[in-house]
Design brief:
single chain, 434 Repressor (Amino-terminal Domain), 0% strand
Amino acid sequence: MDKQHFDRLVKGVREMKRHMAGKTVRGARTTELPAPDVRTIREAARISQSQFAKLIGVNLRTLQNWEQHRTQPTGPARALLKIVASNPKAIEALHG
């Protein structure tokens, strides 16, 4: 590897570090979707915390952390919450 390629590689790694630290990096785009309001979604479905946690397959403490905004749901849980948010009666499909 010649010096020019090495210098470009080092520059790229430094830019990646800045990006991961939340700093602006030229050419990098991020899209952050707002976290779902889990409490509002659960209350719209008219269901208790323990029942809701059980239906969506998460620990009660995890659900409480989401509702208190200490952590955020990710992956399939986030997708399921989006479905329930758009149609609170969709939670009934999980009862079976």
